[in-house]
Structure prediction request, 338 residues.
Amino acid sequence: MQTCDADLIIIGAGPAGLTAAQYGARANLRTLVFEQITPGGQALTIDTLENYPGNVGTRDAEGKPLAPPKSGYDFSQDLHRQALDFGARFIAAQVETLKTEGDLFTITTEHGETKQAIALILATGASHRTLGVPGEAQFTGRGVSYCATCDGPFFRNKKIVVAGGGDAACDEAQYLSRLSPRVVLVHRRDRFRAQDSLVERVRNNPRIEVRLNTIIREIRGEQTLSSLILEHSDNTGTGTGQTYQENADAVFVFVGTVPQTSLVPGLKKDAAGYIVTDQRMESSRPGLFAAGDVRSSPFRQVVVAAAEGAIAAHCAAEYIEAWKTGRRPVQGPGAARE
Ligand code: NAP
Prediction:
């Protein structure tokens, strides 16, 4: 039998990859995790992870809150520690190529190191989408930001515009309104995509002004951002189509995400480019699993990513066991296969 560097390689250490690492290691798999920056992924940017089941903070005997729910950073640190404690190994490096040799998976890192494994879990997540308007790239880091917890404190009591109409825009507008009383949430359509409970909170927040049917056309400034050109869109017949200048100190952009799939060009994907798997999280390539925000899913949440990571590791363990004993690998209903 061929010898490999690991039974299981996991690429990405957000909630999906970290949970998969813990389950893989607990199943006695030699588990190797690659993460290019620091464990946590996008969860690191969550100020208070209030919707993760059980993460309610601490309370006194009368039930009064003593400490808030854990932040995404603290939560990620705990997941990382748990995976390490169970024996997963971590390598801080970007994976540059992923190849299949026979039925084994070989990765090469930015440092030219190669590692081979029997099964692989892709948990590379998704990155933020940009607006793609003039001035956005020029003022990134000088007023344009994609992370409220990272950059929000620089704009305390300043005028802040938030772009987007999904959960992220509503959540982050709420967070930024704790730093500044002048937050303007602009969304291109006449209704939000976000969950009703989040929209209601935004609408009831006197520190947030909501402007629907509003499109950011340009970002302007000198050394730093100083204004935006906004259009009162008439897409829905309720706008005027007129443009105007809005003074602002910062714009926080939350207009969706793009899946990180450059390592797997040949896999089956959905129309938006997310990896299609069966219910075992197995992709169209046997032995290659996907979990978390990179996977085609109707609901992207930390709890969903963690659960998918657990399923992927469990099913990868079954696949590896079958591979080692020369049995036919377990397969799901084959929904993801070509
Ligand atoms: P999303 O749900 O895809 O929403 C993206 C928003 O940006 C939409 O309102 C969209 O407008 C708008 N948009 C897209 N491209 C645009 C452009 N070029 N210019 C202006 N606006 C644009 O993305 P998300 O809010 O980042 O959320 C991603 C996933 O993470 C979702 O599954 C979400 O549920 C999850 N999430 C959950 C929480 C939570 O539970 N607290 C927090 C954050 C994220 P249209 O509506 O017109 O398409």
The first strand starts at residue 6 and ends at 11. Residues 51, 129, 131, 163-169, 171, 188-189, 193, 254-257, 299-301 surround NAP (CB under 6 Å).
